[in-house]
TrEMBL record:
Strongly outwardly rectifying, electrogenic H(+)/Cl(-)exchanger which mediates the exchange of chloride ions against protons. The CLC channel family contains both chloride channels and proton-coupled anion transporters that exchange chloride or another anion for protons. The presence of conserved gating glutamate residues is typical for family members that function as antiporters. It is found in: Cell membrane; Early endosome membrane; Late endosome membrane; Lysosome membrane. GO terms for molecular function: ATP binding; chloride:proton antiporter activity; voltage-gated chloride channel activity. The gene is CLCN3. It is a multi-pass membrane protein. This is Chloride channel protein. Residues 820-829 have a biased composition (Acidic residues).
Amino acid sequence: MDASSDPYLPYDGGGDCIPLRELHKRGTHYTMTNGGSINSSTHLLDLLDEPIPGVGTYDDFHTIDWVREKCKDRERHRRINSKKKESAWEMTKSLYDAWSGWLVVTLTGLASGALAGLIDIAADWMTDLKEGICLSALWYNHEQCCWGSNETTFEERDKCPQWKTWAELIIGQAEGPGSYIMNYIMYIFWALSFAFLAVSLVKVFAPYACGSGIPEIKTILSGFIIRGYLGKWTLMIKTITLVLAVASGLSLGKEGPLVHVACCCGNIFSYLFPKYSTNEAKKREVLSAASAAGVSVAFGAPIGGVLFSLEEVSYYFPLKTLWRSFFAALVAAFVLRSINPFGNSRLVLFYVEYHTPWYLFELFPFILLGVFGGLWGAFFIRANIAWCRRRKSTRFGKYPVLEVIVVAAITAVIAFPNPYTRLNTSELIKELFTDCGPLESSSLCDYRNDMNASKIVDDIPDRPAGLGVYSAIWQLCLALIFKIIMTVFTFGIKVPSGLFIPSMAIGAIAGRIVGIAVEQLAYYHHDWFIFKEWCEVGADCITPGLYAMVGAAACLGGVTRMTVSLVVIVFELTGGLEYIVPLMAAVMTSKWVGDAFGREGIYEAHIRLNGYPFLDAKEEFTHTTLAADVMRPRRNDPPLAVLTQDNMTVDDIENMINETSYNGFPVIMSKESQRLVGFALRRDLTIAIESARKKQEGIVGSSRVCFAQHTPSLPAESPRPLKLRSILDMSPFTVTDHTPMEIVVDIFRKLGLRQCLVTHNGIVLGIITKKNILEHLEQLKQHVEPLAPPWHYNKKRYPPSYGPDGKPRPRFNNVQLNPIDEEREETEEEVHLLNSTTL
């Protein structure tokens, strides 16, 4: 199916893919998830037939068959092992195959670390470009420009003759109203230029490069096919536009998109190895390792990256994938450390060292920060999803460039006057995390020194706040409101936009304000019973930077609903291993509070908004419906389209393919028996028939198609039959009509099925696809009554296979049951047999 001709498939890379509310418009059996597995006791293809090129592959916007892919890999592995003793060359091929997994994750880690270092350096330089330029070396950012200057003072360490603001270059003034206005104008100009260039590149060259990428990565790792989403053009444009988007000053981060960048690297390198290029399930093992490498370089947290891949994005995570994810994260972190993009000889920008331990009474404000994080997460998810839904349903969504320009303009105009919003978000978080030492000149550390200290020490006692601190608190309150509002409207626009850093910034601002408040409370009321034991006069009791760190973790946890991986990421990010308990308390509180308003994190909410076929393993199915309540066809639907194993011609099958949009067909023994034989995919049938017409003589429209092992006897004048047993799935998954949907959903989640056939005493009644399950779950969420019962289903009871006389009942294509009198014996049920020609 051509994606360009289908209005429900993505048109601009924004992830607008088949909304659930539109699924019924595409026909009952049009699905992205029909398919078949492979017989576990046989080869993928019949041993007597040559493999047919193209069979077993997938179209765009379809779901892979995990069972078939795993069986293909086992067969490939057995074939390699059986040949490795034949010659030295075969042994070499066997070793290459065994080591290819480690090679591909090594290459992925190297590329991810290199690109992350490049993005960090370029983003820092372009962010400072909005304020001025270094005349001595144009490629230096502000900090690097002043490193070698001998004319820098301690109080004004960011000022040096080599660095010139735009006002100094254009109008020759460094101070005054004219200088301020000129710098303001140039700040807005550069912000709009970067934003316009970013959205233009995304729209023209790689529509899939927009957004965070994590919702789509989760969907792809669950088995969905999105061609081009992890391609080389997407990688190139996302790398460039990520730098531009961050430099524009928009309320977004680069950490989420770095996961997308790393997965692009993993996908590209997997094509160098046949083991992964020809197997979609194996390729997803590489993508899981790549996502770990992406978080590793985004936060400088290798272990946190592995846990993030396991907890948040991966659908299938075997033990060997855990090892390779760990190795990929290690390699990526090593490369990033070698590049040293932050110039501090560390992996991260936020590394802090606190000199005071936390005390038991501080758990109360930490838990309050967790409550704030949960409330912020619930508010953000609802507000952002509502805005994104409105963007899709109004004309405003048709002008992505205009939207980005408007958001960037509002952000730049409001951000410049406030020094905390003008700062790069990462620099803001670093300043909020930093403890006030004797060498800090920030206004957040403007305390009144009322003690005569004879020497400089690391742990300065708590002091009363000065005017600079109170001024900073007001500016931080304004920055908090600004960040909350702008992040809601920024996440989801058509530029690369991550959510990790904005959420952490909001939590860090709130945490720093709470930390200063607790610090002043402890100073002025140190005789209260909660402070008396720990906060003596002249003691260093409260660390406001710690509250900022806890608040950042709480807000990020409230938005994403991560727990274990988030705690590990934060303590790796800051080096605060001693403060794991406060982090755990705040993160768990934020999750509980957020779950009280809805169990979906922001990524799951965007997956559901975009209509991706994703079954979340975290959701519990607590309803009492049965397989017969969900299967298709239903009462008003056309009968189930089936193939017979040896009674149909090539023309019959081609007509069925042309007249229907189903992606697979059950194969039965005959129209009379309706006994299940197997399952054939629409794509495989089309490819096999086209291949047979080209390569086999005598195959015409009247040729008999045979799915059986032995070809039936035909008249001498009959054309040559076409054997298609090689494409038939001989062991499709089946459930009975009385199987609880709780079990069916669990099977789909854990085995990654595309479809499951519903039978009764071996007779095919219908089919359940992944799309049908998603529709059913959506109806249950909206408290909609279940659809009408199936056309052949009545009171969940069926006649026995044998009649009262002990002889088998006759079977036809469609069986219509009359209402059953509960007091009558089951053998007296009346069965009305429909005309078999209605199929």
